Amino acid sequence: MKILVLSDRKSAEGNSSLLNTLLDLLMNADHDTQTITLNRGEIHPCIGCFGCWFKTPGQCVITGDNANDIARQEICSDAVILLSEITYGGFSADIKAFLDRSIQNILPYFEIYNNEMHHETRYEHFPIWISIGYGDINDAQASTFNRLAQRNALNLRPRKHLSLTVRCANDLKEAEQAILQVLEAGE
Fold this sequence. Notes:
By secondary structure, the protein is an alpha/beta fold.
């Protein structure tokens, strides 16, 4: 399985045991894994022009950074794993900057899905979506993160999705089976 891991800078700093634990897990399961460390300083902010929907469908009109390339890699992957520090219950600024720019991978039109209004999908296939939030958080922040990640996944409509929160690499090892189950179910 081709897996794209999008991590924030903090998870990739130095010898981050959290990112290394995740990568070891994926490599031991024989997955073809690519890791990209996102840096919001290197990704231009979304300007809300919706050019990616109407002017250049499926591609952001902003150039000069790698957001279009990463969004393309996202769609060409079998699974995407977001590794994000939880900030006030949400994604880190690095991950959020990319998520804002990746709206090019959905359509501007709406439809009813699961009795709710959501964007239509641009592509037949959207990769399995796994959001892993980490940090020294309380239960309310963990709950907010999981709800946000699940709502984002619902709008993207991957075949399978998983959201979980961890405080350290040992917690991630405990979640290993859940991660592998979601990946195997999507094969």
